[in-house]
Design goal:
Chain lengths: 310, 222
């Protein structure tokens, strides 16, 4: 298999290396310095950086603008796009804008409902869903067409990704759902954060039984826990999150000042365990407002130095 | 049917203040089923407003009345007199009825006594739920007879999203996830393999997005 785009992420995956991605959330204001700092903290330890798109429906600096900024800094962004806020005109237009700056990775998402964020009284769009956005990206890239049927002069070249949450309900369609995303054009997958490793391994087994791991690169998602409180919050309050009791207990079992370190240890152990699992092509490390810990996690998990590709 | 909910009495009071002769006007079809806007509710609301008028010493006359449906000309005959008498009609119909009155009686003020909520069904006594948004191109044959447009909080055509938890929607633990319902039903029908069909990008031009809609029937059919 050869890489079809200029995406560094795609090249690393195609070359058979275990990829490492991370993510940064844009600021709630017009000053870009903080996100630049965050990106610089991890630039040598990850292959690509996802820029979230108004995550949890809280208004922030736009993902595309931050991706352009990263690109101009010589970094490799993954443009997250949710279908909540923009219709098909705006989405296609942003894809072209991204392509014009050499942005080559897109992650297609539906986005959290706006009731979670700072504009619960706002309208939502959902003209397309995440699978239809994937189809749209492939249509634009592979056939050089707009959804309206017109031809695109210089079609974009994008490595298209999607999210998968093996822990959401109902479990019985979690593998079929992945198959559907692959059929729609997902070339890489970043999963929901994994705390229930057993359940994840079971899902991966079923993914491999269907041969899906040969059609799509699966990056296992991990998020280091900062405290027992965060573990409990994720367990009880975040929809679609599965934090087993023994993880909460382990966090609560150490003194408060040692809990951040315990969280990082758990994260590193999870990566080490999953490295051996068939079908996993890399890791997506989401250290929420804790980017400075990403280098330590990557190094301790034996994923450093990052491979060079041209 | 169309489901609505009476506006808070304070809001109604504020809306009618400034008018002398008010007709509280029920609509005895859809909004009577949800006990919000039928002729009986019009009677009750009128007496509450009269009490309020007495308490506040307001110079205002309040009558009540009602017809079978406020969205068709032929039902208005019996109410002609009381509508002529009033200077404002507080309609307890859905928004369709309120506008129909405004259009039919250009010299009268038409006021909305209800907040029109949705098109839905009576799941159980006292429980009404939304189940159609009139998208103009029904896809229920693709979704096991359960509408993701009206019943999924994100109108997801290829769900469920990652927030579906224990059968409930990410936005509210009381709300069923439409996609869980679709899957359960596909499974019960022995057609779970149909889940892997991708529902293509939707043509929304038949929905609100395409502008106000109209249906012109053949002469014979109407
Ligand atoms: S698919 Fe459209 S017409 Fe059919 S029930 Fe849903 S909203 Fe109504
Ligand atoms: S949880 Fe289910 S109903 Fe709610 S937004 Fe997601 S797919 Fe739709």
């Amino acid at each position: 298999m050869n890489a079809k785009t200029n995406s560094r992420l795609e090249k690393i995956l195609v070359a058979g290396h275990k990829a490492v991605t991370s993510e940064c959330g844009p600021p709630r204001g017009g000053d870009p310095s903080h996100i630049e700092e965050k990106a610089n903290l991890i630039r040598n330890h990850v292959d690509a950086i996802n820029i979230t798109d108004n995550q949890t429906s809280v208004t922030r600096m736009c993902s595309l603008a931050v991706c352009i900024r990263l690109k101009l800094m010589g970094l490799e962004p993954v443009l997250q796009m949710v279908t909540r806020d923009r219709n098909r005109i705006a989405l296609q237009s942003d894809i072209l804008g991204a392509a014009s700056y050499g942005i080559s990775n897109i992650l297609c998402l539906s986005g959290d409902h706006q009731s979670f964020g700072d504009c619960p009284t706002g309208q939502n769009v959902h003209d397309l869903d995440s699978m239809q956005l994937l189809q749209t990206v492939r249509l634009m890239c592979d056939e050089g067409k707009f959804l309206g049927g017109g031809d695109i002069d210089s079609p974009p070249k994008m490595f298209s990704g999607a999210a998968a949450n093996p822990f959401a309900d109902p479990y019985k369609i979690r593998v079929p759902r992945l198959a559907k995303k692959v059929a729609c054009g997902a070339q890489f997958i970043q999963t929901q954060c994994i705390y229930n490793v057993e359940k994840f391994i079971d899902w991966m087994g079923k993914v491999c039984d269907r041969g899906l791991h040969e059609k799509v690169f699966i990056l296992a998602g991990v998020t280091p826990l900062k405290s027992a409180g965060m573990a409990r919050y994720m367990k009880n309050r975040v929809p679609g999150m599965d934090v087993p009791d023994d993880v909460v207990k382990r966090m609560a079992g150490v003194p408060k000042e040692n809990q951040p370190q315990e969280g990082i240890d758990i994260c590193v152990e999870t990566i080490e365990r999953l490295k051996e699992v068939k079908g996993i092509s890399g890791f997506h490390i989401m250290a929420i407002e804790w980017e400075e810990k990403v280098p330590e996690i990557v190094e301790r998990a034996g994923l450093y130095p990052r491979p060079q590709v041209s | 049917m169309i489901v609505g909910k009476q506006k808070p009495i304070d809001d109604i009071w504020e809306m009618i203040s400034g008018y002398q002769k008010i007709l509280v006007f029920g609509c005895n079809t859809c909004v009577a089923v949800c006990h919000q806007g039928g002729n009986k509710e019009a009677e009750i609301l009128a007496s509450l407003l009269r009490m309020r008028a007495t308490q506040e010493g307001a110079d205002i006359q309040i009558k009540d009345g009602g017809i079978e449906r406020q969205c068709e000309h032929e039902f208005f005959e019996s109410a002609k007199g009381s509508i002529q008498w009033a200077d404002a009609v507080l309609s307890l119909a859905c928004g369709v009825g309120v506008q129909f009155i405004a259009g039919k009686y250009p010299a009268k003020v038409a006021l909305p006594g209800l907040d029109t909520l949705f098109m839905g069904d009576v799941q159980a006594p006292g429980l009404l739920t939304e189940s159609c948004q009139g998208c103009g191109k029904c896809i229920l044959h693709l979704t096991a007879g359960i509408c993701p447009i009206s019943r999924c909080a994100k109108r997801i055509m290829n769900g469920p999203c990652g927030g579906s938890t224990k059968g409930k929607c990410e936005i509210n633990k009381e709300l069923d996830c439409a996609w869980q319902l679709i899957l359960d039903r596909l499974e019960a029908l022995g057609r779970l393999d149909e889940y892997e069909r991708v529902i293509p990008v939707k043509d929304w031009s038949t929905e609100r997005a395409g502008g106000p809609r109209k249906l012109v029937m053949d002469k014979e059919a109407s």
